[in-house]
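Example 3.2
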Amino acid sequence: MFGLSLLVSGLAWWLGLYLLARDPRKPLLWWAGAGMIGYSAAVVAPNPVLLAVPALAWTGAVLLLARPELIRWWLLALLPFFAASFFVRWVVLLPLAAATVLAIRKRAYFSLVGVMFGLSAGAFLLGLLPDAITLPSLGFDVVVFGVLVAVTDAVEEGEAIRADMLRSLVISAFTAVLFGSQVIFFGGPDLLVFTTVAAAIAVQVLANPLASVVDRLAVPSVAAERAELRDAAESLPKRRPLVTEDAAEFARLTRKALSHYGDLGKLVASPLIALTDDGPPLDRAAQLKSMLLASIQRLKPVDGDFGTSDEWRYYNAVYFYYVKGIRPYSVRTKREDLDAEDRRALQWFVTQVPERTLHNWQNAAARLVAADLMAGVGST
């Protein structure tokens, strides 16, 4: 039983950290990762209240996939449901069941996993089956859910997932066995084995962000350059082949590349890197960035430096947002380096362009940029 608990806990811990490390800015990965980590803790200390964490976290993840507009309401309901779990164990399964029903149309596979987890968690919370049965059953659901979230995110990003995930798993398993076996060999307590394995996995999965923190403290003058090199190296296993025959997919990948315009580490993983000449990864990413800029510049009307008529909207939507980095709807963004043209564009976005409209313009502009890139491929 101890060996099974250690395996399931370590696997859930690794998968949770892996999701968080993929992109800390994405709420979906935070919700799913928190569920994995909460489940890992529940395996070490099988308490019904701890099991409420993955149930509540995965409710948020499923809502983000199926009905993202409801996530604000779920944030308000989160604490009351968690508090209620102290008195009525199974109450946390109610919102998960509701979210699963909402996801049936859009994400049927997540609904299936939600049902599987709900049944297993219900059996555990109500004590219907021995822990020896419910523990591996819940562990299977955890792994399936985490892998589905990782694959969904990778598809959205236009990335491959198998090589990167397998590499992370192998390295984490090796270090966990290396250090955990020593504690077992010398007769350490069970809790020390769990914490040693967790620490070994965390050091491997979070090696990149931990190195960035150390660099900012120890060598701040080159911290940004070192982070860029690490991101490029981490992105190489995520790159997948480019298929130019599918115009819609090519446009989607172009849209994603535009969203990473200022991040060479992310552009290294873009399938569009295949459009560049052979060379070092960062050089190819810089070349792709130049190609995107050239295509964006071809969207610019010939009359003047800035305008707000219909013929300017696609150029403005991608140039000022991605190339200049202006975020008109973000309350956290304060820019003191804007020139007169940038300030005019910012004022126009804030007062005249709804956020949804800008999003639609960016999608349309991405299709035009993609067509321009494909035309360049056809002419070479």
